[in-house]
Amino acid sequence: MAGEGTTRAFLGLGGNLGDPAAAMAAALRALDGHAGVSVAAVSSLYRTPPWGVTDQPDFLNAVAALDTALPARQLLDLGLSIEKGLKRVRAVRWGPRVIDIDILLHGGGAVDEPGLQVPHPRMTERAFVMVPLAEIAPQALIKGKTAAEWLPSLDRSGIVRLAGGGAWWRALSPG
Questions:
Q1: Which of 13, 70, 124, 170 makes a 20 to 30 Å CA pair with 30?
Q2: Could you report the per-residue pLDDT of 72-85, keeping only the tens digit for each?
Q3: What is the number of helices (H) and of strands (E) in the chain?
Q4: Is 58 a catalytic residue?
């Protein structure tokens, strides 16, 4: 769908309850099937240690590049709707979850509204975001540095690449 009127956006996806790979695959299918959104690339799937609240299971994480005609707020609303459809419960900040969908970047623009900040304000502190982002978009600019340039400053210990390449989500059957 890339073309006039579209923006390249990057979403972080993760989860650590139930079958997080299946939940992320379902979220990617829902995004790709939505009018005005096309999944352009998906990182490998990574197992990552929890961040923030550490007494919980490891997460699975990935980053997706989208070509979208949706403004950031509508893309956020779509992501929240998909999370709700996948039974996301918001009980503990940074706690266990079935699925999490965060807007990392939306074109080169910045948004600072209640409930929405783009670029994601803490993404450069989080290896579980920057490793998959750098895999699919090493030249993506965040705060004046590329995604690849942020990697040396991050603790990447404990991050394990599980499924190489971005086709893993298409291989998982729905339901």
A1: 124
A2: 999 999 999 899 88
A3: 5, 10
A4: no
SS3 content of the chain, % helix, strand, coil (to 5): 30, 30, 40
Instruction: Verify whether residue 97 is a known catalytic residue.
Output: yes
- The phi, psi pair for 81, rounded to 5°, reads -65, -40
Q: Which of 102, 126, 161, 170 is catalytic?
A: 102
Is 126 catalytic? The answer is no
Q: What pLDDT score does 94 carry? A: 66
Query: Span 118-138, mean pLDDT?
Result: 95
Length of the chain equals 175
- d(CA 154, CA 152) in angstroms, rounded, equals 6
Q: Is the pLDDT of residue 45 over 80?
A: yes
100 is catalytic: yes
